[in-house]
Structure prediction request, 339 residues.
Amino acid sequence: MNGLPEKLAALPTDWRARVLESARVLQVPMRVRFRGLDVREVLLFEGTHGWAEWSPFVEYDDAESSIWLRAAVEFAFNDLPAVAHKSIKVNATLPAVAPSEVAAALAPFGAFEVVKIKVAEKGQALADDIARVREVHRLWPNARIRLDANGGYSVVQTLEVAQSLIDSGLPIEYLEQPVATVAELAEVRTALRQISPDAPIKVAADESVRKASDPIAVARAGAADVLVLKAAPLGGITAAMKIAAEAALPVVVSSALETSVGISMGAHLAALLHSPYASGLATAALLADDVTDSPLIPVDGQIAVARVDVTNDALTRLAATEERRAWWLARLERCLALI
Prediction:
């Protein structure tokens, strides 16, 4: 079906025209710089079943961005499978801030049981990462901790950080993509079992799934304990569920720094997968604004599983400049041609 997931229902013949006609390009300000961004650019469009978000990061090429577009088309033009849960547990997310800024950065998340801490930020040292983690533990001693390095550590650095955390007795749930390659992940996972054989720190794979030509390779290699799945980069709910089934590993559904529209797709995926882990889908709390009057901000560590209604006021308030709008619409037409 023109490259779209096989299990999609039949699309209306004018679906491409509907995408182009309803497309709105927005610039959403961030509360704190995250992933090097102060403003998150997104494109929303409306299909027969509601609004969808297409927001591949601007540096991604058209081939990769078209995978995100398939996910958005699936979400906008198809019924969603019934879910048993009306809400899902989520973790808080901490950008790579200084220890003095930790409390303020986590305040928008309210109460939480799990926190993901960004580490391996360019220009920072291992000591900065460890200090950030210790400050989180001081303020929230009962919270389980995840560290996300986005492949930014070496094997040696990963094990140095892990040893420091083990020595401090901190409740580390897992290390997310500490190193860049599947082979390095396997090396780290083996070494962690030697450092702490009774209760080794788990290894989660993110980029080794969503940026890999074979997203199951990391599972086959025994290089991860947990897979991090992001609906948009993987091509949508149908594609992500297939990966989860084939990998046969526990999963964590996470966001790609979307607005509440994009997060709602992830929330449906998490509810369908019944993961025992809290999802990384509370990131609307990192935004200073949103596209809806009912943003998916966590309440008591949970967010709702529901489609999101976009408001006209938000579409006007957050409208991108004409230059950025033209850039995104040209990108959209190129990617539509690829699917």
